[in-house]
Amino acid sequence: MKSKLLPFIAIGALVGAAISMLDKHTRDHTVETAKKAKDTVAYYAENNDELVALVESKVTQAQSLYGTVNNNVQALMQSDMQQMPATIQSMVSETISAFSKKDDQIS
Fold first, then answer.
1. CA 77 to CA 74: how far, in whole Å?
2. Distance separating alpha carbons of residues 42 and 18, to the nearest angstrom
3. How big, in percent rounded to 5, are the helix, strand and coil portions of the chain?
4. Around Cβ 59, how many Cβ atoms within 10 Å?
5. For residue 75, which phi and psi values (nearest 5 degrees)?
6. C-alpha span between 86 and 107 (Å, rounded)
7. CB proximity list for 93: less than 8 A, separation 6 or greater
8. What is the predicted pLDDT for the residue at 84?
9. 32: how many CB neighbours lie within 10 A of its CB?
């Protein structure tokens, strides 16, 4: 028997969208947002180099954020480890080591 969940979710989303379009403010906002999206897509279609630069910038920001968070978590774990019993310290060390190996494999 096929699941009916996804089709009914889709139908519910479409009905909800149709009902929300009865409100003039929502319609106007949707049209305005769609026009802006169309203009943005058209602009980047003509200016691929800017799109590439933007994506590279966002990737660099995400990598930097990941590095900062990773360093902060490791520093926090190291400072808190001094207060933990030896068994818990070894478990945390093994976990950090396992995640560090995964990070090296991803990079």
1. 5
2. 27
3. 90, 0, 10
4. 10
5. -65, -40
6. 31
7. 81
8. 67
9. 10
**Residue 53 is encoded by which pair of tokens?**
């630069």
pTM of the full predicted structure? 0.49
Quick one: CA dihedral 74, 78, 83, 85, positive or negative? Answer: positive
pLDDT of residue 24: 96
User: Would you say 23 and 29 are in contact if contact means Cβ atoms under 8 Å apart?
Assistant: no
Give the type of residue at 92: V
Token pair 């207060």 is found at 83
What residue type is assigned to position 70 of the chain? N
Output the six-digit token pair for 18: 């149709």
User: In angstroms, rounded to a whole number, what is the distance separating the alpha carbons of residues 48 and 29?
Assistant: 28
Count CA atoms within 13 Å of residue 77 on its CB side: 16
Query: Residue 107 and residue 47: Cα distance in Å, rounded?
Result: 30
Q: 9-60: per-residue pLDDT in tens?
A: 999 999 999 999 999 999 999 999 999 999 999 999 999 999 999 999 999 9
